[in-house]
């Protein structure tokens, strides 16, 4: 029998919408830049700059906003107007202040899971923004706690589990990202559940060749998570 002592659940695009709003801003950014350059590939340049900047700025809206400004400067040959820089900054502020919109079935699923298991929200990114979203969601009152990683890698998960005195084989992690929520858990011998979301940030995408053939499960909706965990728990 599998004993699940701790359930971790990702936040962005697992509990609430996130990438959808980034995609909307990116579309507006591409339209804004069309008056400076007709060259294609601006989306790829923005994505490349953003991924490169992760090592300096980390994850989140602030990093994304700075990457848009850098991309705008390069694409315009340094001729980007200050008014357009101001517009880009305003989009970043809007993202930071956007209301938390829970995905369908989240509240019910969390309530049911938390009634039977110890549940933690496990996310990564900007500490203040992620904490704010968790608290605004109201889910912090339903779960045992939350943890905001600097990076979701095997070492970070192991540190988290050591702190909680949980063996990886008794830990289940559910989320929308194969890179962040599945592969690290498979690597440490835990139970991983992939809940795909309609949009995936470029950084979180992985090539088919690096996707393990086994070692994790896939469910269509977070609504299915409570029954899945209960059945696994036996």
Protein model, in words:
This protein has 234 residues and is of the alpha/beta class. It folds into 2 domains: 6-16 and 101-233, Rossmann fold (3-Layer(aba) Sandwich), CATH 3.40.50.1000; 19-97, Putative phosphatase, domain 2 (DNA polymerase, domain 1, Orthogonal Bundle), CATH 1.10.150.240. 49% of the residues lie in helices and 12% in strands. It contains 9 helices and 6 strands, in the order E-H-H-H-H-H-E-H-E-H-E-H-E-E-H. The longest helix is centred in the N-terminal third of the chain and has 16 residues, at 42-57. The chain is elongated.
- The CATH fourth-level homologous superfamily of the largest domain: HAD superfamily/HAD-like
Query: What's the domain count?
Result: 2
Strand content: 5-15%
CATH class of the largest domain: Alpha Beta
Number of separate helices: 9
CATH-derived architecture of the largest domain: 3-Layer(aba) Sandwich
Which structural class best describes the helix and strand composition?
alpha/beta
Topology of helices and strands:
Elements: E1 6-9, H1 19-33, H2 42-57, H3 61-75, H4 82-97, H5 106-116, E2 119-124, H6 127-137, E3 145-149, H7 154-164, E4 171-175, H8 178-188, E5 191-194, E6 216-218, H9 225-233
Parallel strand pairs: 1-2, 1-4, 2-3, 4-5, 5-6
Helix pairs in contact: 1-4, 2-3, 3-4, 5-9, 7-8
């Amino acid at each position: 029998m599998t004993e699940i002592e701790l359930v971790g659940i990702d936040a962005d695009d697992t509990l609430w919408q996130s990438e959808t709003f980034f995609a909307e801003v990116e579309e507006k950014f591409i339209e804004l830049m069309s008056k400076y350059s007709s060259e294609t590939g601006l989306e790829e340049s923005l994505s490349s700059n953003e991924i490169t900047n992760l090592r300096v700025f980390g994850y989140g809206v602030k990093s994304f906003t700075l990457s848009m400004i850098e991309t705008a400067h390069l694409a315009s040959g340094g001729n980007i107007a200050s008014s357009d820089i101001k517009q880009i900054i305003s989009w970043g502020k809007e993202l930071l202040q956007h209301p938390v919109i829970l995905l369908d079935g989240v509240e019910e699923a969390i309530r049911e899971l938390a009634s039977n298991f110890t549940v933690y929200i496990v996310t990564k990114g900007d500490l203040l923004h992620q904490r704010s979203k968790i608290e605004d969601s109201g889910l912090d009152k339903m779960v045992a706690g939350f943890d905001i990683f600097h990076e979701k890698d095997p070492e970070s998960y192991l540190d988290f589990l050591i702190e909680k005195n949980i063996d990886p084989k008794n830990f289940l992690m559910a989320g929308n990202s194969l890179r962040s929520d599945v592969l690290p858990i498979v690597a440490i011998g835990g139970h991983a559940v992939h809940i795909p979301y309609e949009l995936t940030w470029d950084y979180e995408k992985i090539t088919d060749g690096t996707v393990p053939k086994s070692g994790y499960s896939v469910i269509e909706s977070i609504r299915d998570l409570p029954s899945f965990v209960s059945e696994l728990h036996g």
